[in-house]
Protein: Entericidin, EcnA/B family
Organism: Salinimonas sediminis
Amino acid sequence: MSLLSNVTLVKARYFVILAAFLSSLISGCATMEGAGEDIQSAGEAVEEGAQDASN
């Protein structure tokens, strides 16, 4: 193999690793956003329950 093809192979490997990392990062953000919405809706339900109990 020539030096040029080795450099190209290394760049391709780094690109694949970077793409995998970025896709996991993006999906992680979406998951955290969904978890935040779930926690928020649970908190609202608890708050409504407390208001109903006090009335």
Observations:
- The chain has a mean pLDDT of 82.
- The longest helix spans residues 3-54.
